[in-house]
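User
New here, help please:
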Amino acid sequence: MKIIDRRIRKLEETVAHHEIGGPSPAEVVRERRRRRLEGSGLPFEEGPPDPLLYARRKRPTIAEVMRSARTWRLAEAASRRAAMEEQKR
């Protein structure tokens, strides 16, 4: 029983600590990315949100955001590959 009580107490502390304020997980990730890029000497540019995700006038799910980002990365990689092929010719 003590184990269950301790686990519940830890969960309640976690929830209570999160409700106090603190940055959201998205803000933490964004800040880490900004610091990492600035540390390596690259500029931090946060692009505008994907208009297709917000077309329905509601917040997209995490899965939709991740799919959109993956699609964007794949398209960008394909365009870079095509540009490299053009340079080789």
